[in-house]
Amino acid sequence: MPSLRILLLASCAFVAAASAFGARSVAHLDRGEKLVEQFLSAHAAGKFSEGDTFLNVYGGSWDSPTNYSFFRLAHTKKKILPRNRTTCAPFVTHLLRSTYGWDWKQHRIPHPRTGAIKTSASPNPVLYYSAIKNRIGFTRRLTKLKDVRPGDIASIWYKKETGDKGHTMIVVAVNPKPKTYTAVVDAKTKSAHRKIVPKLTGKLVYEVTVLDSSSTGHTRPAPAGTANAAKFTAAQIDTRWLARPDSPRSKKLRSAALTGGAGIGVIGLIVDPATGKIVGHTWSLPYVDYKKARAAWHRSINDRVYFQSTRELVIGRLPANLAVRPAQPGFDYKK
User: Fold this and answer.
1) Where are the beta strands (DSSP E) in 179-255?
2) Strands (DSSP E) along the chain, which ranges?
3) DSSP states along 97-128
4) Tens digits of residue pLDDT in 113-144
5) Which of 71, 166, 255, 281 has the fewest C-beta atoms lying within 10 Å of its C-beta?
6) CA-only gyration radius of the chain, Å
């Protein structure tokens, strides 16, 4: 089975290969990608569970003595399978901790709403957002997508929702060829499609591949019967979807959403070409083809978009040249 990195590089539009960017710290991304590749290999071999528990699940709690969050790299010689039981921010923290010995308790992070100073071994997505925005533990906050590289960390704060809600992920690759959201569908008639969102007009929609732990995954193939369906490449389809066809779970839940857990998928980042800054994002890409069904594609973006005013996404860069701890196959990385 080709590696996920090879699949990305095979798509010439993608800027990937974390190792090509020199001094930046990217070993956490390499380790996370390796875990996902091991899940795909296990699933291809018909192995989905360890005992009565799925190998890759979304869940767990940092402080729980029984339902604790963790991940494990496979140990081929000892026939130990890979495992993951994490939610989004703890997955990133486990990767940083296992790879660099990272300790978030050494950092005091202000809550973005209350200003209260928080110290936590496992920050939630809102605290990751604040840490990036205030450059706490991060050397840079990247406001322009052109500066983003593999290994950078993104976190979203759901500002308008109660409680500390959000999502944290790691950038794998950015497709440098965006699609333009335009008010015109037909270049000859200049007829504008209905339901245009004015503040999206002229903005660029970039495909960004991310590594994360989520309950649903991201871009998936179009449902059967979709007119003018987009033809996604293997690199665009979420790995949590790729695991479904032969999964025992899929036989019972064929109409369900993507399976959860650690995986790699594609989101959309919406950029203002005048400033290069991110103005919004989508959790996944439209099911329809951009060229064949322009109006439907635009409507799908309308339905999927979250603007920075409601769900703000920020991206930060870790310090360069962090010392890397050797991986320990077969070991449960937990609190």
Assistant:
1) 179-180, 204-214
2) 49-50, 53-54, 56-58, 70-72, 83-86, 109-110, 117-118, 140-141, 153-158, 166-174, 179-180, 204-214, 261-271, 278-282, 306-307, 311-317, 332-334
3) HHHH---GGGS-EE-TTT--EE--SS--HHHH
4) 999 999 999 999 999 999 999 999 999 999 99
5) 255
6) 20
